[in-house]
Amino acid sequence: MTAEAPPTTIAEDGSFTAPFELSYPYSRTVGPTLSRFLTGLQDKRIEGTVGDDGRVFVPPAEFDPNTGVACTQWRTVEATGTVQTWSWQAEPAEQHRTETPFAWALVLLDGADVALLHKVLVTSPAHIATGMRVEVVWAAERHGSILDIAGFSPIDHPRADTTASTTADTSL
Q: Is residue 19 domain-resident?
């Protein structure tokens, strides 16, 4: 299959213009720290690293941000937490892998000291609040990616299923 060249136009001054898309078609390894974190997610386990001052970083930090000392100690945290702050996504884009509105939130998982950014699976800003307790909704199929967490769901609110695919409707 051969891609067609994008259409070009000639301006009144004689200059050429054409559409341009910048991309970085490469892959990289995640290294031992993120590899362990992502493998844990695949197994429905959330782990973080312990910093020089005892703080637990989720996602894990390779080095303590204050001292530069390598974070080599690991700690498993809970799949529940508290919304620290949030922002509403009324119109999801293709990369969000859902057609349902949701909230972006910083979730402080129980046992962690640094919040994780992820989706909270609610369909209205009226269904989320700072301080709300939430729990992980695991993806039906997990592959060792941050998408193994389909999102978070408010605790004590009904939902159709305890496991959701990343494209499932998990609205309240």
A: no
What would the two tokens of residue 83 be?
Answer: 């919304």
Q: Whole domain around residue 52: which residue ranges?
A: 31-164
The pLDDT, as a whole number, for residue 1 is: 53
Closest CA to 167 of 118, 105, 95: 95
CB contact at 8 A, 41 and 137: no
Structurally, how many domains does the chain consist of? 1
- What tokens appear for 103 in the block? 């909230």
Assess if residue 8 is contained within a domain.
no
The whole-model pTM stands at 0.75
What's the rounded Cα separation, in Å, for the pair 74 and 48? 6
Q: Taking the chain (172 residues) in consecutive chunks of 10 residues, what is each chunk's mean pLDDT? A: 66 79 79 96 98 97 96 98 95 84 96 97 93 97 95 74 38 38
Please list the helix, strand and coil fractions of the chain in percent, rounded to the nearest 5, in that order.
10, 30, 55
